[in-house]
């Protein structure tokens, strides 16, 4: 995945306090919003699993299988509520970009 794709953002919001089962359709919608090439894929082509949950983030592994059977996996990080008061997310993204 290209570095510019790694820093995509969406205006969609997701409640991180629900179960993974409840969270999955929202994560899929988020992925479809961020990556237009997946916008028409059936939800059954996506899998979502929890990697970790930190004090300020929820980290998920999302795997997607396209129509040709090729699969991609990537991490989705969801920020916790009000963490922008503690962590400068814009700076964090810049630092992440430098490290990739």
UniProtKB/TrEMBL annotation:
EC number: 2.7.1.82
InterPro entries the UniProt entry points to: Kinase-like_dom_sf
Gene Ontology BP annotations: phosphatidylethanolamine biosynthetic process
Any one Gene Ontology cellular component term annotated for this protein: cytoplasm
GO MF, any single term: ethanolamine kinase activity
Domain of life of the native organism: Eukaryota
Pathway recorded for this protein: Phospholipid metabolism; phosphatidylethanolamine biosynthesis; phosphatidylethanolamine from ethanolamine: step 1/3
A Pfam family assignment: Choline_kinase
EC main group: transferase
Signal peptide: none
PANTHER family in UniProt: CHOLINE/ETHANOALAMINE KINASE (PTHR22603), ETHANOLAMINE KINASE (PTHR22603:SF66)
Family, similarity comment: Belongs to the choline/ethanolamine kinase family.
UniProt-recorded name of the protein: ethanolamine kinase
Species of the source: Kalanchoe fedtschenkoi (Lavender scallops)
